[in-house]
Design goal:
Coagulation Factor XIII, Chain A, domain 1, Immunoglobulin-like, 6-stranded mixed beta sheet, 5-stranded mixed beta sheet, about 5% helix, about 45% strand, disordered N terminus, Ig-like_fold
């Protein structure tokens, strides 16, 4: 087995030297998480057990076989060094030869093993072949610190029916590379914050999306080069409340849409209905997907007073626009219930009719006909 291994190693080096020569040419360094960013950025924290995987691009990267005629043949890889705010030589077991044009390396961080917390700043990267010849890439790598979170403030409180402004303060934010910010709560999917502006490296302005469920969330910020930080139990979402809501009638046939009246009886800090456009939803399944309850918007919602709204439950129509001509109401609400209702007031207040006091859809009778 020794001769084939030795022959392969010798052939690799001989071929590489014949086509490229022993002097390497380093042309670029890439963080795979941000392939289009030059110079490459890497965080001095995180990265897992071995650090961050980076790619060195160029020509003439030439490994050198060692002990090829022994029982333990080996390959000596090029030497990779960094110089800048601090100097560093990459351990041999953190460098991987792919081909004469590509080397991969795992750059240690404060959290890896071995650990090395690079001082933030610009670094020159150099590659030296075992047989001699060095190529340098000045300012080839920018080391950045991880972001931090110090304060998270909803200056106007929370609004169920609209985005709620949120101010995030900390450090390590960059306007040229928008971070990913998510709300996280155990047992639920992460909720990303889509609208954000990096005002400075210490301040971000964003929004909590409408209809985010009430509760306490961890806030996680992840910069594009990979580093993230979490502030646990940092944000409690709660909405002002409407009063006790009741409706009449509390049922309607599946074969026709039903007009209802919602009554609001506030007390204490609870709010009456506000003039303007109210969003009212019935939480129920539709026949197109009977296994899942969804928020079905009520139609013709009309503000009457602080204590009264009128609306139409689209029992037969579901999400289909009127008029409904099929008497079977194929897109209507699944008969059953009672189903809960949600009211999003223009003031940002939230009101609910619980399922126990909600709206029931009765099975259609033969002589029922759809309401246009």
């Amino acid at each position: 087995m020794r001769l084939p291994v030795a022959a392969a190693l010798l052939s690799l080096v001989a071929c590489s030297e014949a086509t490229e020569g022993p002097t390497p040419k380093l042309e670029g360094l890439i963080n795979p998480l941000e392939r289009l960013v030059t110079p490459a950025r890497v965080c001095n924290a995180g990265g897992g057990e071995r650090g961050w995987r980076l790619e060195l691009l160029g020509t003439g990267f030439n490994p050198l076989p060692r002990d090829a005629l022994t029982d333990t043949p080996a390959v000596e890889l090029p030497l990779v060094t960094l110089s800048g705010p601090s100097d560093y030589t990459l351990p041999a077991d953190h460098l991987f030869f792919a081909r004469a044009e590509l080397l991969r390396m795992d750059l240690p961080t404060r959290d890896s093993a071995p650990s090395s917390q690079f001082v933030p700043g610009a670094y020159t990267v150099a590659v030296t072949n075992p047989l001699g010849g060095t190529s340098e890439l000045e300012d080839g790598l920018r080391v950045v610190p991880p972001p931090t979170l110090t304060n998270i403030t909803p200056p106007l409180g929370f609004f169920y029916g609209a985005g709620s402004p949120l101010i995030i303060e900390g450090s390590g934010f960059r306007a040229d590379a928008l971070p990913l910010i998510t709300l996280r709560r155990e047992g639920e999917e992460d909720r990303p914050l889509f609208t954000l502006v990096v005002v400075s490296d210490t301040r971000i302005e964003t929004e909590v999306p409408p209809a985010t469920p009430e509760g306490t969330y961890d806030v996680v910020i992840t910069n594009p080069e990979g580093c993230s930080t979490t502030r646990s139990q940092a944000l409690t979402v709660t909405y002002p409340k409407l009063g006790q809501l009741t409706l009449s009638p509390r049922s309607g046939p599946a074969s026709g849409d039903t007009a209802i009246t919602l009554i609001n009886a506030p007390s204490g800090n609870e709010r009456p209905f506000s003039p303007g456009i109210q969003d009212v939803y019935l939480v129920a399944p539709v026949k197109a997907d009977p296994s899942q309850r969804v928020n079905i918007p009520l139609r013709d919602v009309t503000y009457v007073s602080g204590s009264q709204l009128t609306a139409t439950v689209p029992t037969c129509a579901g999400f289909e626009p009127p008029p409904v001509t099929d008497p079977q109401c194929p897109n209507g609400i699944v008969p059953g219930g009672p189903y809960a209702l949600i009211v999003a007031d223009p003031s940002g207040a939230l009101g609910q009719v619980p399922g126990s006091a909600g709206f029931t859809v009765s099975a259609p009778l033969l002589n029922d006909a759809p309401t246009p």
